[in-house]
Write a sequence for this structure.
């Protein structure tokens, strides 16, 4: 536990960079905007307890952040409501059956020994804790990709053909965008969380993800393949429908940038201009995402606004992490019983590059440069991972 706390604090020191976006009221005609600085926690892949999230909220508050983004659905789904009953395509799903199916999905993705899901009571207390400190929460549930646990849950509940499949290759994490029942299930599920967080009184923005479609099927980023197959318009419809659900709940919709106007191509349709774009990647050769200038020219809100300042802050915070003893903590971590370099957590940005350096596979300068570059590519917000052995 002490090691976890040290690692968590180290990563907070290292990766808490400031990001700003102008946020207006979805509902009203007012033009008042608010500058937000946001700390993001990837609480989908790994389980974070109530106490751990409160500790992170405290760190965010003390470091001047206005908002905490909690990605509760990202590969795993780590939060269930008291009432998870659903009506989809004329069929009823009992609350307990849905909860059991989600647990089965989480276990299939990663059976975290530290816990499975947060309860509604726990989330109520987390939200209240943030509110007391003047922080708002940005909840996140990623779809139509990064749905590993939810896809297993659908199958547990008897839904068929829920995964995107091409030429016999079936996705582990992406819903079949051409299956109306699977899409309706996803929308009904996400809407339950939209309604919960809308009623909390501390949520202005809801992040519905929308990054990476069936990369595991195509072997390359899937957006270009959807365009070649002439089904990219279905993704546009899906995205706009999610945005509409969020706006109906008087919140602002947000999603990641890579799938939005992929290749700066607008001939397939128009995305809802109220969507805030969280710019997590600038792409690379063969991964032709729309650039910030494209979004600016089309009057689409972008977060973060200043990429140069972001990159400088990432380097600054990574150096602070090194000075705080990150490599010493990694050395101790590798000596713990049960340590596995190939575990999902060890493939996280920072850990992977540190392990290469500690194994003598790179020198210090290469390690630092690779870790900073990977962070710039991989994070729109810093994402924190809990490690316990």
């Amino acid at each position: 536990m002490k090691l976890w706390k040290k690692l968590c604090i180290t990563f907070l020191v290292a990766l808490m960079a400031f990001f700003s976006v102008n946020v207006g009221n979805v509902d009203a005609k007012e033009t008042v905007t608010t500058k937000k600085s946001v700390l993001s926690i990837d609480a989908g892949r790994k389980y974070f307890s109530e106490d751990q999230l409160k500790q992170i909220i405290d760190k965010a508050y003390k470091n001047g952040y206005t908002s905490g983004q909690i990605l509760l659905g990202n590969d795993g789904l780590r939060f269930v409501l008291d009432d998870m009953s659903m009506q989809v395509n004329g069929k009823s799903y009992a609350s307990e059956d849905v909860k059991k199916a989600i647990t089965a999905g989480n276990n299939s993705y990663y059976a975290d020994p530290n816990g499975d899901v947060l309860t509604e009571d726990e989330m109520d207390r987390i939200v209240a804790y943030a509110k007391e400190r003047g922080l708002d929460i940005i909840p996140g549930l990623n779809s139509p990709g990064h749905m590993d646990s939810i896809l297993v849950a659908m199958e547990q509940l008897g839904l068929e053909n829920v995964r995107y499949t091409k030429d016999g290759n079936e996705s582990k994490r992406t819903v079949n965008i051409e299956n109306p029942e699977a899409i309706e299930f996803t929308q009904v599920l996400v809407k339950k969380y939209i309604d919960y967080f809308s009623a909390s009184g501390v949520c202005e923005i809801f992040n519905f993800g929308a990054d990476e479609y069936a990369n595991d099927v195509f072997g390359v980023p899937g957006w270009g393949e959807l365009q070649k197959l002439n089904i990219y318009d279905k993704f546009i419809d899906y995205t706009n429908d999610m945005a509409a659900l969020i706006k109906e709940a008087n919140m602002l919709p947000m999603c990641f940038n890579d799938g939005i106007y992929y290749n700066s191509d607008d001939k397939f349709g128009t995305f809802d201009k109220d969507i805030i774009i969280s710019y997590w990647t600038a792409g690379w050769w063969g991964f032709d995402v729309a650039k910030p200038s494209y979004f600016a020219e089309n009057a689409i809100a972008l977060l973060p606004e200043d990429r140069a300042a972001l990159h400088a802050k990432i380097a600054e915070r990574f150096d602070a992490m090194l000075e705080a003893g990150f490599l010493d903590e990694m050395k101790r971590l590798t000596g713990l019983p049960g340590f596995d370099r190939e575990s999902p957590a060890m493939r996280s940005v920072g850990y992977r590059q540190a392990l290469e350096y500690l194994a003598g596979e790179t020198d210090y300068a290469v390690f630092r440069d690779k870790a900073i570059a990977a962070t710039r590519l991989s994070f729109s917000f810093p994402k924190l991972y809990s490690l316990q052995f």
